[in-house]
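Sequence in, structure out. Go.
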Amino acid sequence: MQKEKKKYKKESFMQGVFAMMFSQVLIKLLGLVYKMYLTNREGFGDEGNAIYSSGFYIYSLLLTLSSVGVPNAISKLVSERIALGDNKGANRIFKIAFFTFGLLGFIGTLILFLGANYISNVILKIPEAEMTLVALSPSIFFVSLICVIRGYFNGNGTLKVTANSQTLEQVFKTVFTIILVELVVIATGMNTTIMAAGANLATTVATIGSFIYLFFFYKNHRTLNVNAPNVITKKESIFKVIKKILYVSMPISLSAILSSINKNIDSTTVVRGLSTFMEESQAKIQYGILSGKVDTLTSLPLSFNIAFATALVPAISYARAKKDMSTANKRVAFSILVTILIGLPCTAGMFVFAEQILKLLFPAQSSGAFLLQISSIAIIFTVLAQTINGALQGLGKVMVPAIAFSVGVVAKLILNLVLIPNPAIGINGAAIGTIVCNVIACIIGFLVLKKNMDIKFKFSKYILKPIFATLIMSICSYAIYLGLYSIIPGKIATIIAIGSAVVIYAVALIVLNVFTKEEIFMIPYGQKLYKILEKIGVYKEEKAN
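Output:
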């Protein structure tokens, strides 16, 4: 175990980030696959997405209440016991947590199952969502148990188990979504309500599959630290163990709960607001466009960036423990720079190619380009807030992200209630509310971070050069699209233009010398990359800012 720990510490910050990034991107891509299938499937489309998403967001809220934050809490407590050589104590923590959160998950399942009719008819005003809520209800119980097992293995230093189970779960979800929806079509002849319920039932099937994998892995590997000294420490009461778990998990859960509430603001206000000036069926379609397509696309950049938010927590905590704040400052500064360099092109790309992206991915249901353009503005602020929150949690400022986001959520709720019923604004009011919410969260978090860390943000490096590179990318790639559109099919022209945008942006960053030599070395294989750039003469370190 000691050797494993030593090896883990030697692993570079960016190697961990890239490994995590790969896993999250794969999961997001698989999620996009089944979203594309559902949206383009005859009989489902935007109306089906409205039913599917409204039920799923309520499920996510209950799931957050019963389990989010648990893996980190269990991981922390288990790793502390293992560090002391108290393997029996680690297993005792696991068993107490398994029972406690299994009970909470079961209560959540009962609430969703028994309250499905009331939630769908009174809260959501989407009666068709009742079956989707019933189909999702067992998942809360199984996910609560899954979170405990993942936390146990994370505490043992076997993070690969969590990654494997998450990937396996998403594979199951993608495959069973398609299978169950097609079976519904055969049995009912394209009943949208039952199709949506079948799609959400796939989530339950996937979580059960993930639980089975983790449970059997636990049965076969629960004595991972058999060679460690079997030291017996003071036995804590069950109540004290539960109290410790909740103390660690609650601040993290609060941020996740607010994020879930943020999504449920749309599910509870959009159809209500739009129904004041349009038919309810049309209002549901508008909500389906927002939740099924726009939210799915604008959340994709988060899969690239979440790795920084996750990796910063232990990285800063470790640096603080070593009283090495210089390293902590460098890692936060570099992470924020890369976040900007991820967020800006994603924002610009979805704004410029909104219509083309929708036609490429959802040819049967391609409406919503203007809504996607507005929503894309929120991307840069969302990813920045995500990275800043990771840094704040690493500093021990765990309540700041929750407070910042709560202010943003209140602002979004007010804007949704005021803007959406206005016929001149309509569904776009939800997108405006999301932008304002994330801008507020980002600004508050950044101000607190600046106050607690000695980081110098140069305007040219962090703002001017990234914006200039993004403008070059946008203009050149759209010019390529216009040039190709008249001679080749539009979808192929879109793919080539977006592919060229990536290359153009990378070249622009190199030519503008955005990264210093030290920062390039932080990237995996950075030394080799730097030597290549020096040889071809496109990068000179002394020009860097």
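Check: The two ends are 42 Å apart (CA to CA). The CA atoms of residues 15 and 524 lie 6 Å apart.
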